[in-house]
Amino acid sequence: MKIGLRVIFVSLLMIVMPLSGCFSNEKESTPEPSLSPFDFSNEIPPNTFYHFANQTNAVGSEWEANLTGNNTPVWALGTYYGIGESTFEPTIGITSDGTILMTNYRGTGDGTHIIRSQDWGQNWEDVGPFNQVFPETGQVPSSNDPYLYVDKWTDRVIKFDMHALTAMFVEFSDDSGDSWSIPYSAEGYYSPQDHQSIASMPAAGHTSQSDMIYVFCINTGSSALGPQCSRSLNDGRSWDIQRPGYPIGTPQCSGLHGHVVGSNNGNVYRGNPSCDGPAVYKSDDGGYSWSEHTVSTTIGTNSHEVAVATDEVDNVYAFWISNDQLPYLSWSLDEGNSWSEPINVAPPGINSTGFPTVFAGDDGRVAVSYIGEGDDGTGWSGYISVITDIYADMPLITSVAVNVADDILDDTNDCGQVRCGGFGDFIDIEIDDFGRPWAALAHNVESEQGIVGTFVTGPSLFGELNSLTELTPGGPESLL
User: Has residue 22 been placed in a domain?
Assistant: First the structure.
């Protein structure tokens, strides 16, 4: 009998247990909706674009879930600051303490002056270098092409001027422009001497009188002759005879080139079209001899500028404007021997661009700058685009226009394809040691005033991926 009651009790329990959930007050939990990585605390500004290659919008796309790690979006806003002076073919340099220096073009009689900011672009001052006899005039009284370079290993500021297409002069400062050396001659052996560019690289492994080797390259005016380059082993005081900046015996189809750049491993690079497409030229012996590396044979280039940069682990980046008037970026993880498939880095809505320039930060982080015009054709804006993880399957590109729609930098129809006002032949970009990109541009509508474009805040290109310290926005109010 006891066994029978036990069986009945267990049977009833088995019947009641499944029904208990039906009469329970417990509610089934509803999963929280997944948040978009673009759900920032502030709205995305109208001049900020989050996109993938080939002008594919990233916001609301099916690939949002893959935006993690260094490929995570960071809220960004662009702006610019006027330097208070005119410019032409602007170049920029930044020392390790954040001092920003930019070229002011004054032509014949006064030469190029260096304009300096020590408070993140808020205020600017003229630091010469001044002639000791005529204290308001530059030491080099004439410059057809101004050029500024900051040695990122030593903080040395180098001013490199070209006069009358024949003579060049090197001046340097080791205190951010407070004082300057005398001008040292870097006269060339070909004429014309044009489109000069200078860079440095560590001398480790090379025979040199200094810890650094300096290399400059020039355009000879002849595509067949190609660019010529020279090196200095004593900090720019004297120079080797100029030699071809390409493999001797290799046919050349362009005499012009982009900015020269040095790498941590002692290599030096420059870019221009080869006879097969956009190309990077490398020297691993301090600029004495060079090898040629065509980046792409399918995405051509419509101009002489193939910009080159290297990041902290010696990856190499090439950036150029193609025949479709759009900007393309490719990178090499083996010192230029092989290259990624080029990607179009323009944001959606841009159909014409010009004046490419590039600089790189930590491993896989890169910033480019260019001017661009949208589908409406209302004028040209200055753009900065950054990638914080080139290794991602779909690298996120964060692009900002540094000016707003009613404050265009130029209204020329074909500004991106011709020598255009203060842009001249090229612009420049650099990343400060805090990870913020700064682009040297011209505001042609406002009398070719020099401006520096940057991020009010955005993703850092050095250190941990985080938001840059917020700056006070500039814009038209910062112009004269």
Answer: no
Contact 215, 231 (CB under 8 A): yes
DSSP per residue over 109-176, as a string?
TT--EEEEESSTTS--EE--PBPSSSTTSBSS---SB--EEE-TTT--EEEEEEETTTEEEEEEESST
| CB distance 356 to 368 below 8 Å | yes
Residue with tokens 């189809």: 253
* Domain, as residue range, for 335: 37-478
| CA terminus-to-terminus distance, the chain | 105
Give CA 112 to chain center in angstroms: 23
**Is there a cis peptide before residue 348, judged by omega within 30 degrees of 0?**
no
Asked if the structure places residue 187 within a domain, the reply is yes
User: How many domains, in total, are found in the chain?
Assistant: 1
User: Is 380:412 a contact under the CB 8 Å cutoff?
Assistant: yes
- Cβ atoms < 10 Å from Cβ of 387: 26
CATH of residue 289: 2.130.10.10
pLDDT tens per residue, range 119-174: 999 999 999 999 988 888 999 988 888 999 999 999 999 999 988 778 899 999 99
- Strands, sheet with 212-219, edge to edge from the N-terminal-most edge strand: 194-202, 212-219, 228-232, 243-244
pLDDT per position as a tens digit, 228-267: 999 999 999 999 999 999 999 999 998 888 899 999 999 9
Q: What's the burial of 185, exposed, middle or buried (CB within 10 Å: 0-12/13-18/19+)? A: exposed
| Residue 9 forms part of a structural domain | no
Q: Which two tokens stand for residue 365?
A: 């982080």
Backbone phi and psi for residue 477, each to the nearest 5 degrees, phi listed first: -65, -20
Q: Cβ contacts of residue 208 below 8 Å, gap of 6+? A: 233, 234, 286
Give the residue from 42, 102, 144 showing the smallest Cα distance to 453. Answer: 102
Whole-prediction pTM: 0.92
Q: Which residues have CB under 8 Å from 204's CB, separation 6+?
A: 266
Q: Which residues contact 185 (CB under 8 A, 6 or more apart)?
A: 167, 168, 169, 170
Task: Give the CA distances from residue 82 to residues 22, 96, 306, 439, 446, in Å, rounded to whole numbers and listed in that order.
Answer: 71, 22, 27, 12, 10
189 occurs within a structural domain: yes
